[in-house]
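From the methods appendix. Each design record in this collection lists the tokenized structure first, followed by the designed amino acid sequence. Records were kept in a plain field format so they could be parsed without special tools. The example shown here is representative of the layout used throughout.

RECORD:
FOLD TOKENS (539 positions):
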């Protein structure tokens, strides 16, 4: 456990926390706006990427924050590492089609390409081609949109260091796309060809070429959708997929108005839904906007992996932020909406998209809070400069606070009440159900008395009860397992050949009487390991 912090350091941490809160508030102006303008397609997305040839393996970005490394933070001129940390590669055959990306979108989009870089064996002339009908077999309807040197970073920057790096994004131009179009990766010269994430950004007509900036992956506690101001009376949150295919759960859905006196107008809203989880007082529709957080005050859909919930405001309001979470207290990590869309309307049924999960990095099971990203492009130069300075100051304060909080550790017992033990639904640790009481193996109840303890029994009582159960002379396992281990380490093989499995899946003892006799000797001599060593070695 950690040694308590001195009062002086506690006060310093308190002041740093206040400074962090102020800076984050001032930086909120630079949060990426949810415009639903991106389509991100990772090479591991089997729904939208087809491999035409057998792959040779995966390249894994090295840990670190250097350019192209796993935690590369990017800057205002290039994106952070959005690859997920890996890329796919093939043994190259010149002019052979290797992979097909299928965006399935209609409209005018700027295409941003990325690949695995850093190796001198990679091709210098991989072709990315736009296929009109999406059928690679009909090669007469293609347009080459980029020829890429995959040894280097985007735009030919960097040098070969023979490490599996992420390239960053290279602009492949603006194109009018239809749902049937596909992007084909074709091999060039060299030994290896790679594929990684691509992003399509809806073309806004601007001249500034801004690399994609996406929001962090969805988190279990709190997610913020930062919007351009939108006037709405109806807001609908539709879940299309969850992290474990269970019914989606939201503990609170908040709609925040614009301006300094921002307020959560969702508290006054009328609620409707596609259907509600039945017969559980913790999960009710009315909990969605009651201002209380946590799993015990949440709404759950009645459909696996999907469902919608709708807020109807008493009167139209202009909002610029939507906040929601699965469990703001952080205890539960199942039922998280990972694919979703949020729509708004002034009149019933006249929906327009406000935000969706396409604006976020793919969810990959992250348990910690995702890092916040800021977008300084599109702001006046002086305002953007001040924003970058504030972000640098925030990072410095966070580093300073982390250093102060890093106290010395001491191994010591704790006297707090243990957390409840729950039955995991179908063995899934993300789906805890009923609380269960401390108990031994039911299979031994005929020989040993059950513990008969209450679910909230103190830690001390639990340990004493289990120790007595474990060392009870009638317990058929403890002494036998121990002496078998000792025999195993002396002779290379136990009397039971599977020392970690005394159950039905293990071997029967080769000399059961000897095993029983040694077990009795062990118990009758005060559980003395030295006695058993001496007995075996002097035999």
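DESIGN:
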């Amino acid at each position: 456990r950690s040694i308590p912090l001195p009062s002086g350091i506690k006060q310093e941490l308190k002041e740093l926390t206040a400074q962090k809160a102020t800076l984050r508030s001032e930086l909120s102006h630079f949060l990426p706006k949810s415009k639903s303008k991106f389509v991100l397609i990772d090479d591991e997305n089997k729904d939208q990427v087809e491999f035409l040839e057998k792959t040779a393996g995966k390249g894994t970005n090295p840990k670190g924050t250097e350019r192209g490394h796993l935690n590369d933070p990017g800057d205002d001129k290039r994106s952070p590492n959005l690859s997920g940390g890996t890329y796919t590669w093939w043994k190259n055959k010149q002019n052979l089609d290797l992979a097909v990306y299928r965006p399935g979108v209609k409209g005018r989009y700027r295409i941003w390409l990325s690949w695995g870089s850093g190796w001198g064996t990679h091709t210098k002339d991989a072709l990315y081609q736009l296929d009109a009908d999406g059928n690679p077999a009909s090669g007469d309807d293609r347009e080459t949109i980029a020829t890429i040197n995959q040894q280097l970073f985007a735009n030919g920057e960097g040098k070969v260091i023979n490490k599996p790096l992420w390239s960053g994004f290279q602009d492949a131009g603006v194109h009018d796309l239809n749902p049937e179009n596909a992007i084909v990766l074709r091999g060039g010269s060299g030994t290896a060809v790679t594929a990684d994430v691509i992003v399509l950004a809806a073309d806004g007509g601007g001249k500034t070429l801004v690399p994609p900036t996406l929001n962090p992956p969805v988190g279990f506690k709190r997610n913020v959708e930062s919007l351009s101001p939108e006037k709405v009376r109806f807001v609908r949150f539709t879940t299309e997929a969850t992290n474990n295919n269970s019914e989606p759960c939201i503990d609170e859905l908040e709609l925040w108005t614009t301006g300094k006196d921002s307020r959560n107008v969702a508290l006054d809203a009328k609620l409707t839904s596609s259907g509600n989880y039945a017969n559980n007082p913790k999960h009710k529709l009315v909990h969605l906007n009651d201002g209380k957080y946590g799993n015990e005050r949440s709404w759950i859909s009645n459909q696996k992996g999907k469902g919608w919930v709708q807020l109807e405001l008493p009167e139209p309001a202009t909002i610029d932020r939507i906040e929601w979470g699965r469990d703001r207290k952080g205890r539960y990590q199942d039922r998280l909406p990972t694919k979703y869309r949020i729509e708004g309307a002034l009149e019933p049924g006249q929906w327009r998209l406000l935000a969706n999960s396409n604006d976020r990095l793919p969810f990959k099971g992250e348990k910690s809070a995702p890092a916040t990203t800021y977008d300084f492009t599109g702001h006046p130069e002086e305002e953007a400069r001040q924003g970058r300075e504030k972000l640098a100051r925030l990072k410095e304060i966070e580093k300073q606070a982390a250093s102060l909080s890093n106290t010395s550790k001491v191994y010591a017992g704790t006297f707090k009440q243990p957390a409840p033990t729950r039955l995991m639904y179908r063995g899934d640790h993300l789906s805890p159900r009923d609380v269960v009481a401390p108990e031994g193996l039911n299979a031994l109840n005929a020989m040993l008395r059950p513990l008969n303890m209450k679910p909230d029994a103190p830690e001390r009582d639990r340990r004493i009860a289990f120790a007595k159960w474990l060392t009870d002379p009638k317990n058929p396992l403890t002494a036998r397992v121990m002496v078998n281990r000792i025999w195993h380490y002396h002779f290379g093989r136990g009397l039971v050949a599977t020392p970690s499995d005394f159950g039905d899946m293990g071997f029967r003892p080769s000399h059961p009487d000897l095993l029983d006799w040694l077990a009795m000797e062990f118990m009758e001599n005060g559980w003395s390991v030295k006695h058993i060593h001496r007995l075996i070695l002097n035999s």
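APPENDIX NOTE: The CA atoms of residues 153 and 167 lie 4 Å apart.
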